[in-house]
Amino acid sequence: LAKTTQPISMDSYEGQEVNITCSHNNIATNDYITWYQQFPSQGPRFIIQGYKTKVTNEVASLFIPADRKSSTLSLPRVSLSDTAVYYCLVGPYSGAGSYQLTFGKGTKLSVIP
Amino acid sequence: KAGVTQTPRYLIKTRGQQVTLSCSPISGHRSVSWYQQTPGQGLQFLFEYFSETQRNKGNFPGRFSGRQFSNSRSEMNVSTLELGDSALYLCASSLISAGTDTQYFGPGTRLTVL
User: How far apart are CA B84 and CA A73, in angstroms?
Assistant: First the structure.
């Protein structure tokens, strides 16, 4: 069962790039890494998912080194509306068999004007 | 397309009681997962249902149970409530599998146990 570790909190100024790293030392071969964003009083919302190397979509990039023991979520030019808690989730890609989905404790990002 | 809905949004119970929470997934989604969220433990996986069968289960006592109906709607039950069960309970739906597909979360049910 892959355990994840993230920084508890981070502060950033508007317009800056923010990088949030998640450690998952015992990630399994068939595990994917997914990041979610959560605002107060709402459920988490999918941001990005990856397996290795780099993935980019319209809101973020995800960097995964070759050993896959960590991953970094990169948010370009953050705004006040990006203030939220960001969760790293490590779980198997294959739906076959038994698995558990392990969320990190989350990183509270505060964007300062 | 309507999102995931959870009812009720807020609930207050006393120790020893039982509670049932309901979740309606996105239309066409067949997998429903449940999570418990607390300030101290974060988001913890309870279980996942697919085609009316429990596919996976997290490390929670047997007091926590669930079921899924033929229309994919799901209910979660907690019996003999304890103070520590106070939490936000989140439901998430996926197309086929929470491990494979993007999970879409509902707004949650805030349960307070007195």
Answer: 32
Amino acid, res. B37: Q
> B54: closest CA among B98, B13, B14, B8?
B98
Which residues does B contribute to its contact with A (CB < 8 Å)?
A: 4, 33, 35, 42-45, 48, 55-56, 58, 90-92, 96-100, 102-108
Most A CBs within 10 Å, among B32, B91, B101, B103, to test the A interface = B103
Task: Please give chain A's pLDDT, 113 residues, in tens.
Answer: 567 899 999 999 999 999 999 998 888 888 889 999 999 888 999 999 999 989 999 999 999 999 999 999 999 999 999 999 999 988 764 444 556 677 778 999 999 99
